[in-house]
From TrEMBL:
This is Collagen type VI alpha 2 chain. Keywords: Collagen, Signal. GO terms for molecular function: collagen binding; extracellular matrix structural constituent conferring tensile strength. It comes from Chelonoidis abingdonii. The gene is COL6A2. Belongs to the type VI collagen family. PANTHER family: VWFA DOMAIN-CONTAINING PROTEIN (PTHR22588). One of its GO terms (cellular component) is collagen trimer. The keyword Lipid metabolism does not apply.
Length: 427
């Protein structure tokens, strides 16, 4: 499936999975940590993105319906319900997952499994659907919780996949916990050392095959040059582009990059005002060395303003320091420097789009990554050219390989295939 997606530039590729009801149970306790919790959410989004279409109707006899339970201490469960009528597209689902916030409390895994079975599967599963549960845990849970509930999914109507992450699963008692969750089916137990392994392409491929070993439906036709409808209409998104203005980019490529930003602004449905609770606003920062950052335009919905600002842009032709650029973007775009109030909308997804090869100075990089996490930034990386620093790209992408778009050159920015994929991802 991955091979077809990567090589078939003129195909619409979708798996036919039949009716699937899938519930992800993810650990949101303090022992997990913010970064690992973000990786859990990225894993859920990446897997679901592989499974064909989301069934628009919760009662549909085809397509996938997906629920998520995040849990922490006793009684602290937050759920995206299988039968939530508002979740009628992948974009809606992705947004709902991104809104989940790390709880950072204790760990009541058995109770969470019982809750997930009773409140999502038992009450909401479709009659003709195959039902899967995917449980992610680091093995720790409160000893006051009832271990009998570890087998909550073992009623014969759910295929359970248990993913244990960390060194604790080298201990026999913790290994037994994992097998209890998976109903003693060794084939459905997966152990990992690090949470970053969740978002590895190989593991996403494996989960895709586990959940949907279905046929691949490939329809060949030329990709349209225009999307049929405007994008980002059903939710608020504030998008900040960070454009590498270093000498490695070159003036011709720099022009291609800012033309790409302008094309994106025309393709999206922009907000009607700064207080609009839907639609998109965009901003652009060009950066060079540690002290060279230029806000080309702040978060705005005004196409005329965007076009005029881009027509006056001046290529820095400098060195590159992306860490300082991130901090500058947060302090001067996300936060209004005049009054120190948040300029990004509180209810909007805050997205940083990096256009860079990742070859940069390392000063302030770790500090800037922490700042991104504090601001709940969702990163997307457009990596152009064959000579890239993947370590840096992964850092600014917060470890999510799916958020990194690798393209051979800047000319690819204007290709319909890439542009379509980018718009669908960002929205």
């Amino acid at each position: 499936m991955t091979y077809v997606r990567e090589t078939c530039g003129c195909c619409d590729c979708e798996k036919r999975c039949g009716a699937l009801d899938i519930v992800f149970v993810i650990d949101s306790s303090e022992s997990i940590g913010y970064t690992n919790f973000s990786l859990e959410k990225n894993f859920v989004i990446n897997v679901v993105s592989r499974l064909g279409s989301i069934a628009k109707d919760p009662k549909s006899e085809t397509g996938a319906r997906v629920g998520v339970v995040q849990y922490s201490h006793e009684g602290t469960f937050e759920a995206i319900q299988l039968n939530d009528e508002r979740i009628n597209s992948l974009s809606n689902f992705k947004e709902a997952v991104k809104r989940l916030e790390w709880i950072a409390g204790g760990t009541w895994t058995p109770s969470a499994l019982q809750f997930a079975y009773n409140k999502l599967i038992k009450e909401s599963k479709r009659e003709k659907a195959r039902v899967f549960a995917v449980v992610i845990t680091d093995g720790r849970h409160d000893p006051r919780d009832d271990d009998n509930n570890l087998r909550a999914f073992c009623q014969g109507d759910v295929i359970v996949n248990a993913i244990g992450i960390g060194d604790m699963f080298n201990q026999p008692d913790q290994d037994e916990t994992l097998h209890s969750i998976a109903c003693n089916d060794q084939q459905h137990v997966q152990k990992m050392k690090l949470f970053s392994e969740l978002v590895a392409e190989e593991f996403i491929d494996k989960m895709e095959d586990v959940l949907c070993p279905g046929l691949l439906d490939v329809t060949v036709f030329p990709l349209p040059t225009e999307l049929a409808v405007a994008q980002c209409t059903q939710r608020p998104v504030d998008i900040v582009f960070l454009l590498d203005g270093s000498e490695r980019t070159g003036e011709v490529n720099f022009r291609r990059a800012h033309n790409f930003v302008e094309e994106v602004s025309h393709r999206l449905t922009l907000a009607r005002g700064d207080n609009d609770n839907m639609n998109a606003r965009i901003a652009l920062l060009q950066y060079g060395s540690e002290r060279e950052q230029e806000v080309i335009f702040p978060l705005t919905y005004n196409l005329t303003y965007i076009s005029e600002a881009l027509s006056n842009i001046r290529y820095l032709d400098s060195s590159s320091d992306i860490g300082s650029a991130i901090i500058h973007a947060i302090n001067n775009i996300v936060i209004n420097p005049q009054n120190q109030q948040r300029a990004a909308r509180r209810n909007a997804e805050l997205s940083f789009v990096f256009i860079t090869d990742g070859i940069t100075g390392g000063k302030n990089l770790n500090e800037s990554i922490s700042s991104m996490k504090k601001q709940d930034v969702m990163p997307t990386v457009v990596a152009l050219g064959s000579d890239v620093n993947m370590d840096v790209l992964l850092k600014i992408g917060l470890g999510d390989r799916a958020a990194i778009f690798r393209e051979k050159d800047y000319a690819s920015l204007s290709q319909p295939g890439f542009f379509d994929r980018f718009i669908r991802w960002i929205c």
